[in-house]
Design brief:
Keywords: ATP-binding, Kinase, Membrane, Nucleotide-binding, Phosphoprotein, Transferase, Transmembrane, Transmembrane helix, Two-component regulatory system. The chain is α+β, with helices and mostly antiparallel strands and about 375 residues long. The chain has 9 helices and 7 strands. Helix 1 packs parallel to helix 3 and helix 4 packs across helix 7.
Length: about 375
Protein backbone atom coordinates (compact mmCIF):
# COMPACT_ATOMS: atom_id res chain seq x y z
CA UNK A 1 0.00 0.00 0.00
CA UNK A 2 2.75 2.46 0.97
CA UNK A 3 4.73 1.57 -2.15
CA UNK A 4 1.68 2.26 -4.32
CA UNK A 5 1.12 5.64 -2.68
CA UNK A 6 4.77 6.56 -3.27
CA UNK A 7 4.43 5.65 -6.94
CA UNK A 8 1.25 7.72 -7.22
CA UNK A 9 3.06 10.72 -5.70
CA UNK A 10 5.84 10.32 -8.26
CA UNK A 11 3.29 10.16 -11.09
CA UNK A 12 1.50 13.30 -9.86
CA UNK A 13 4.82 15.11 -9.55
CA UNK A 14 5.70 14.08 -13.10
CA UNK A 15 2.39 15.34 -14.42
CA UNK A 16 2.64 18.67 -12.59
CA UNK A 17 6.26 19.17 -13.57
CA UNK A 18 5.31 18.65 -17.20
CA UNK A 19 2.99 21.64 -17.19
CA UNK A 20 4.18 24.99 -18.41
CA UNK A 21 7.37 23.98 -20.18
CA UNK A 22 7.56 27.25 -22.14
CA UNK A 23 9.95 28.63 -19.58
CA UNK A 24 11.55 26.04 -17.26
CA UNK A 25 13.59 27.42 -14.36
CA UNK A 26 16.64 25.59 -13.06
CA UNK A 27 14.91 24.08 -10.04
CA UNK A 28 12.33 22.42 -12.29
CA UNK A 29 15.07 21.02 -14.47
CA UNK A 30 16.68 19.56 -11.36
CA UNK A 31 13.27 18.21 -10.36
CA UNK A 32 13.18 16.12 -13.55
CA UNK A 33 16.48 14.53 -12.54
CA UNK A 34 15.24 13.93 -9.00
CA UNK A 35 12.03 12.36 -10.34
CA UNK A 36 14.01 10.01 -12.59
CA UNK A 37 16.27 8.93 -9.71
CA UNK A 38 13.37 8.41 -7.31
CA UNK A 39 11.39 6.47 -9.92
CA UNK A 40 14.40 4.18 -10.57
CA UNK A 41 14.97 3.59 -6.87
CA UNK A 42 11.26 2.90 -6.40
CA UNK A 43 11.28 0.23 -9.08
CA UNK A 44 14.58 -1.21 -7.81
CA UNK A 45 13.69 -1.53 -4.14
CA UNK A 46 9.91 -1.08 -3.72
CA UNK A 47 8.02 -3.52 -5.94
CA UNK A 48 4.33 -2.76 -6.49
CA UNK A 49 2.23 -5.69 -7.79
CA UNK A 50 -0.02 -3.39 -9.88
CA UNK A 51 2.19 -0.37 -10.35
CA UNK A 52 1.30 -0.24 -14.03
CA UNK A 53 -2.22 0.86 -13.02
CA UNK A 54 -0.82 4.06 -11.48
CA UNK A 55 1.21 4.79 -14.60
CA UNK A 56 -1.78 4.15 -16.85
CA UNK A 57 -3.88 6.55 -14.79
CA UNK A 58 -1.13 9.16 -15.07
CA UNK A 59 -1.01 8.62 -18.83
CA UNK A 60 -4.78 9.04 -19.02
CA UNK A 61 -4.47 12.34 -17.20
CA UNK A 62 -1.83 13.40 -19.69
CA UNK A 63 -4.13 12.52 -22.59
CA UNK A 64 -6.93 14.56 -21.04
CA UNK A 65 -4.59 17.53 -20.70
CA UNK A 66 -3.49 17.03 -24.30
CA UNK A 67 -7.09 17.09 -25.46
CA UNK A 68 -7.79 20.28 -23.55
CA UNK A 69 -4.49 22.04 -24.09
CA UNK A 70 -2.35 20.27 -26.69
CA UNK A 71 0.74 22.33 -25.93
CA UNK A 72 0.66 21.33 -22.25
CA UNK A 73 -0.31 17.68 -22.89
CA UNK A 74 2.87 16.86 -24.78
CA UNK A 75 4.96 18.09 -21.86
CA UNK A 76 2.89 16.12 -19.36
CA UNK A 77 3.19 12.86 -21.33
CA UNK A 78 6.90 13.42 -21.92
CA UNK A 79 7.58 14.14 -18.27
CA UNK A 80 5.55 11.15 -17.10
CA UNK A 81 7.04 8.74 -19.63
CA UNK A 82 10.69 9.83 -19.71
CA UNK A 83 11.24 10.74 -16.07
CA UNK A 84 8.84 8.42 -14.19
CA UNK A 85 7.74 5.39 -16.24
CA UNK A 86 11.03 4.52 -17.98
CA UNK A 87 13.27 4.93 -14.89
CA UNK A 88 10.85 2.86 -12.85
CA UNK A 89 10.79 0.09 -15.48
CA UNK A 90 14.58 0.12 -15.51
CA UNK A 91 14.66 -0.21 -11.72
CA UNK A 92 12.09 -3.00 -11.81
CA UNK A 93 14.17 -4.85 -14.41
CA UNK A 94 17.24 -4.58 -12.20
CA UNK A 95 15.22 -5.84 -9.24
CA UNK A 96 14.03 -8.91 -11.14
CA UNK A 97 17.54 -9.53 -12.44
CA UNK A 98 18.95 -9.39 -8.91
CA UNK A 99 16.23 -11.74 -7.67
CA UNK A 100 17.01 -14.25 -10.42
CA UNK A 101 20.71 -14.09 -9.59
CA UNK A 102 19.95 -14.67 -5.91
CA UNK A 103 17.69 -17.62 -6.70
CA UNK A 104 20.41 -19.10 -8.91
CA UNK A 105 23.00 -18.59 -6.17
CA UNK A 106 20.76 -20.28 -3.61
CA UNK A 107 20.13 -23.17 -5.99
CA UNK A 108 23.85 -23.64 -6.56
CA UNK A 109 24.46 -23.59 -2.82
CA UNK A 110 21.69 -26.13 -2.28
CA UNK A 111 23.10 -28.42 -4.99
CA UNK A 112 26.57 -28.18 -3.47
CA UNK A 113 25.19 -29.08 -0.05
CA UNK A 114 23.24 -31.99 -1.49
CA UNK A 115 26.35 -33.21 -3.28
CA UNK A 116 28.38 -32.96 -0.09
CA UNK A 117 25.62 -34.77 1.80
CA UNK A 118 25.53 -37.60 -0.75
CA UNK A 119 29.32 -37.91 -0.63
CA UNK A 120 29.27 -37.91 3.17
CA UNK A 121 26.58 -40.58 3.28
CA UNK A 122 28.55 -42.71 0.83
CA UNK A 123 31.65 -42.31 2.97
CA UNK A 124 29.76 -43.22 6.14
CA UNK A 125 28.19 -46.25 4.48
CA UNK A 126 31.62 -47.43 3.40
CA UNK A 127 32.95 -46.87 6.90
CA UNK A 128 30.00 -48.85 8.24
CA UNK A 129 30.73 -51.72 5.87
CA UNK A 130 34.38 -51.72 6.91
CA UNK A 131 33.43 -51.64 10.60
CA UNK A 132 30.97 -54.50 10.24
CA UNK A 133 33.45 -56.59 8.25
CA UNK A 134 36.17 -56.00 10.83
CA UNK A 135 33.81 -56.86 13.68
CA UNK A 136 32.46 -59.99 12.04
CA UNK A 137 35.81 -61.36 10.87
CA UNK A 138 38.56 -60.11 13.17
CA UNK A 139 36.31 -60.10 16.24
CA UNK A 140 35.31 -63.69 15.55
CA UNK A 141 38.92 -64.80 15.21
CA UNK A 142 39.93 -62.97 18.41
CA UNK A 143 37.14 -64.73 20.28
CA UNK A 144 38.39 -68.10 19.02
CA UNK A 145 41.93 -67.20 20.10
CA UNK A 146 40.63 -66.38 23.57
CA UNK A 147 38.77 -69.69 23.60
CA UNK A 148 41.90 -71.65 22.67
CA UNK A 149 43.89 -69.79 25.31
CA UNK A 150 41.23 -70.59 27.91
CA UNK A 151 41.36 -74.27 27.03
CA UNK A 152 45.16 -74.23 27.20
CA UNK A 153 44.99 -72.48 30.54
CA UNK A 154 42.85 -75.24 31.98
CA UNK A 155 44.96 -78.09 30.59
CA UNK A 156 48.48 -76.71 31.08
CA UNK A 157 50.72 -78.88 33.26
CA UNK A 158 52.85 -76.14 34.78
CA UNK A 159 52.06 -72.94 36.59
CA UNK A 160 54.16 -71.04 34.08
CA UNK A 161 52.15 -72.47 31.20
CA UNK A 162 48.86 -71.59 32.88
CA UNK A 163 50.08 -68.05 33.51
CA UNK A 164 51.14 -67.66 29.89
CA UNK A 165 47.78 -68.97 28.68
CA UNK A 166 45.95 -66.62 31.05
CA UNK A 167 47.99 -63.69 29.76
CA UNK A 168 47.26 -64.69 26.18
CA UNK A 169 43.54 -64.92 26.89
CA UNK A 170 43.53 -61.56 28.68
CA UNK A 171 45.37 -60.00 25.73
CA UNK A 172 42.82 -61.43 23.28
CA UNK A 173 39.93 -60.05 25.34
CA UNK A 174 41.65 -56.65 25.61
CA UNK A 175 42.28 -56.65 21.86
CA UNK A 176 38.60 -57.38 21.29
CA UNK A 177 37.65 -54.43 23.49
CA UNK A 178 40.04 -52.13 21.64
CA UNK A 179 38.58 -53.39 18.39
CA UNK A 180 35.11 -52.40 19.58
CA UNK A 181 36.39 -48.90 20.38
CA UNK A 182 37.87 -48.59 16.89
CA UNK A 183 34.65 -49.85 15.32
CA UNK A 184 32.75 -47.19 17.28
CA UNK A 185 34.68 -44.55 15.31
CA UNK A 186 33.98 -46.16 11.96
CA UNK A 187 30.48 -47.47 12.52
CA UNK A 188 27.58 -45.64 10.88
CA UNK A 189 25.70 -47.17 8.02
CA UNK A 190 24.54 -50.46 6.69
CA UNK A 191 26.41 -53.76 7.09
CA UNK A 192 28.37 -55.02 4.09
CA UNK A 193 26.51 -56.49 1.18
CA UNK A 194 29.05 -59.19 0.24
CA UNK A 195 27.79 -62.77 0.74
CA UNK A 196 29.50 -64.94 3.37
CA UNK A 197 32.40 -67.12 2.28
CA UNK A 198 31.11 -70.24 4.02
CA UNK A 199 27.89 -72.03 4.82
CA UNK A 200 26.51 -72.43 8.32
CA UNK A 201 27.75 -76.02 8.55
CA UNK A 202 31.26 -74.95 7.59
CA UNK A 203 31.14 -72.12 10.11
CA UNK A 204 30.13 -74.52 12.89
CA UNK A 205 32.84 -76.98 11.85
CA UNK A 206 35.48 -74.25 11.96
CA UNK A 207 34.34 -73.19 15.43
CA UNK A 208 34.43 -76.82 16.55
CA UNK A 209 38.00 -77.22 15.27
CA UNK A 210 38.94 -74.13 17.26
CA UNK A 211 37.78 -75.85 20.45
CA UNK A 212 34.20 -74.63 20.81
CA UNK A 213 31.80 -77.36 21.93
CA UNK A 214 29.08 -76.72 19.40
CA UNK A 215 26.43 -78.97 17.89
CA UNK A 216 24.33 -78.27 14.82
CA UNK A 217 20.90 -79.68 14.11
CA UNK A 218 18.96 -78.99 10.95
CA UNK A 219 20.01 -77.32 7.75
CA UNK A 220 18.83 -74.09 6.14
CA UNK A 221 18.94 -75.60 2.65
CA UNK A 222 18.85 -73.33 -0.36
CA UNK A 223 17.87 -69.79 0.56
CA UNK A 224 17.72 -66.41 -1.13
CA UNK A 225 21.02 -64.57 -0.86
CA UNK A 226 19.70 -62.02 1.65
CA UNK A 227 18.32 -64.67 4.01
CA UNK A 228 21.39 -66.90 3.64
CA UNK A 229 23.64 -63.98 4.55
CA UNK A 230 21.50 -63.08 7.56
CA UNK A 231 21.49 -66.68 8.84
CA UNK A 232 25.27 -66.88 8.52
CA UNK A 233 25.73 -63.61 10.40
CA UNK A 234 23.34 -64.56 13.20
CA UNK A 235 25.10 -67.89 13.81
CA UNK A 236 28.56 -66.36 13.60
CA UNK A 237 27.74 -63.54 16.01
CA UNK A 238 26.10 -65.95 18.48
CA UNK A 239 29.12 -68.29 18.37
CA UNK A 240 31.47 -65.35 18.84
CA UNK A 241 29.56 -64.18 21.92
CA UNK A 242 29.45 -67.71 23.32
CA UNK A 243 33.19 -68.19 22.81
CA UNK A 244 33.95 -64.91 24.50
CA UNK A 245 31.45 -64.87 27.36
CA UNK A 246 30.94 -68.57 28.07
CA UNK A 247 34.26 -70.29 27.22
CA UNK A 248 34.05 -74.05 27.48
CA UNK A 249 30.25 -74.13 27.62
CA UNK A 250 28.41 -76.28 25.08
CA UNK A 251 26.60 -74.37 22.36
CA UNK A 252 23.58 -75.67 20.48
CA UNK A 253 22.67 -74.38 17.03
CA UNK A 254 19.25 -75.35 15.69
CA UNK A 255 17.98 -74.48 12.24
CA UNK A 256 14.29 -75.21 11.66
CA UNK A 257 12.81 -74.60 8.26
CA UNK A 258 9.07 -74.32 7.69
CA UNK A 259 7.28 -73.64 4.46
CA UNK A 260 7.46 -69.86 4.74
CA UNK A 261 9.80 -69.24 7.68
CA UNK A 262 13.26 -70.17 8.92
CA UNK A 263 13.98 -70.22 12.65
CA UNK A 264 17.59 -70.11 13.86
CA UNK A 265 18.22 -70.72 17.58
CA UNK A 266 21.61 -70.61 19.31
CA UNK A 267 21.77 -71.37 23.03
CA UNK A 268 24.50 -71.82 25.63
CA UNK A 269 24.49 -72.07 29.44
CA UNK A 270 25.24 -69.10 31.63
CA UNK A 271 28.57 -70.11 33.15
CA UNK A 272 30.49 -69.19 36.30
CA UNK A 273 29.38 -69.52 39.94
CA UNK A 274 27.47 -66.46 40.98
CA UNK A 275 27.85 -64.83 37.61
CA UNK A 276 25.67 -64.65 34.57
CA UNK A 277 25.55 -63.21 31.14
CA UNK A 278 23.76 -59.94 31.81
CA UNK A 279 22.43 -59.25 28.40
CA UNK A 280 19.48 -57.05 27.54
CA UNK A 281 17.29 -58.35 24.77
CA UNK A 282 17.61 -57.07 21.27
CA UNK A 283 14.38 -57.26 19.38
CA UNK A 284 13.19 -56.30 15.95
CA UNK A 285 9.56 -56.91 15.01
CA UNK A 286 8.22 -57.50 11.50
CA UNK A 287 5.54 -55.20 10.20
CA UNK A 288 6.69 -52.19 12.20
CA UNK A 289 8.69 -49.20 11.13
CA UNK A 290 11.06 -49.30 14.05
CA UNK A 291 13.23 -51.72 16.02
CA UNK A 292 14.29 -51.65 19.63
CA UNK A 293 17.96 -52.44 20.07
CA UNK A 294 19.53 -52.56 23.50
CA UNK A 295 22.96 -53.47 24.63
CA UNK A 296 24.29 -57.00 24.35
CA UNK A 297 27.20 -58.90 25.85
CA UNK A 298 28.84 -58.63 29.24
CA UNK A 299 31.79 -60.88 29.94
CA UNK A 300 31.63 -63.62 32.57
CA UNK A 301 34.54 -64.56 34.79
CA UNK A 302 35.96 -67.91 35.84
CA UNK A 303 38.36 -68.87 38.58
CA UNK A 304 41.32 -68.36 36.27
CA UNK A 305 40.21 -65.09 34.63
CA UNK A 306 42.81 -62.34 34.43
CA UNK A 307 42.16 -59.36 36.77
CA UNK A 308 41.59 -56.81 34.02
CA UNK A 309 38.83 -58.78 32.33
CA UNK A 310 36.16 -57.65 34.81
CA UNK A 311 36.75 -53.98 34.06
CA UNK A 312 36.69 -54.76 30.35
CA UNK A 313 33.38 -56.54 30.82
CA UNK A 314 31.88 -53.57 32.64
CA UNK A 315 33.07 -51.21 29.92
CA UNK A 316 31.70 -53.54 27.26
CA UNK A 317 28.35 -53.65 29.03
CA UNK A 318 28.14 -49.87 28.99
CA UNK A 319 29.35 -49.26 25.47
CA UNK A 320 28.57 -52.27 23.32
CA UNK A 321 25.20 -50.94 22.25
CA UNK A 322 26.53 -47.50 21.44
CA UNK A 323 29.93 -47.91 19.84
CA UNK A 324 30.52 -51.27 18.21
CA UNK A 325 27.02 -51.57 16.90
CA UNK A 326 27.84 -54.38 14.50
CA UNK A 327 26.88 -57.23 16.86
CA UNK A 328 23.42 -58.47 17.74
CA UNK A 329 22.00 -54.94 17.65
CA UNK A 330 23.15 -54.47 14.07
CA UNK A 331 21.89 -57.93 13.13
CA UNK A 332 18.49 -57.13 14.62
CA UNK A 333 18.14 -54.22 12.21
CA UNK A 334 19.22 -56.36 9.25
CA UNK A 335 16.70 -59.06 10.20
CA UNK A 336 13.96 -56.46 10.62
CA UNK A 337 14.65 -55.11 7.15
CA UNK A 338 14.02 -58.61 5.82
CA UNK A 339 10.67 -58.75 7.60
CA UNK A 340 11.80 -60.97 10.49
CA UNK A 341 12.59 -60.72 14.19
CA UNK A 342 15.71 -61.26 16.30
CA UNK A 343 15.59 -61.76 20.05
CA UNK A 344 18.45 -62.38 22.44
CA UNK A 345 18.72 -62.66 26.20
CA UNK A 346 19.02 -65.00 29.19
CA UNK A 347 16.20 -67.51 29.66
CA UNK A 348 16.15 -70.28 32.30
CA UNK A 349 19.90 -70.15 33.04
CA UNK A 350 20.68 -70.18 29.34
CA UNK A 351 21.48 -67.42 26.91
CA UNK A 352 19.41 -67.73 23.74
CA UNK A 353 19.56 -66.00 20.39
CA UNK A 354 16.51 -66.64 18.20
CA UNK A 355 15.99 -65.32 14.69
CA UNK A 356 12.78 -65.71 12.68
CA UNK A 357 13.36 -65.05 8.99
CA UNK A 358 10.89 -65.28 6.10
CA UNK A 359 11.96 -67.58 3.29
CA UNK A 360 10.97 -65.00 0.67
CA UNK A 361 11.90 -61.65 2.21
CA UNK A 362 10.80 -58.21 1.14
CA UNK A 363 13.36 -55.66 2.31
CA UNK A 364 11.82 -52.84 4.30
CA UNK A 365 12.81 -49.18 4.15
CA UNK A 366 15.40 -48.10 6.64
Amino acid sequence: MVNGVALAVLAVAGVLNGLGLDSVPLWRQLLFVVLAILAYLHGRHLPVPRGWVVLVVGGAVGLVVTAVRPSEGVGVLGSLGLFVALPRLAGQFRLQQAQLIEVGRQRITQLEREREWVAERARLRERGRIAADVHDSVGHELALIALRAGALELTADTERGRAAAAELRASAVAATDRLRHAIGVLREGAPPLEPPDEEVGELVARARRAGLRVTLSGSPGRLPALVDRAVHRVVREALTNAARHAPGAPVEVRVERARTELVVTVTNPLVGPGTGLATAGTQSTAGTARSASTTTTAATTTAVTAPDETSSAEEDRRDSGNRGGSGLAGLAERVRLLGGTLRSGPTAERFTVTAHLPIDPVERDR
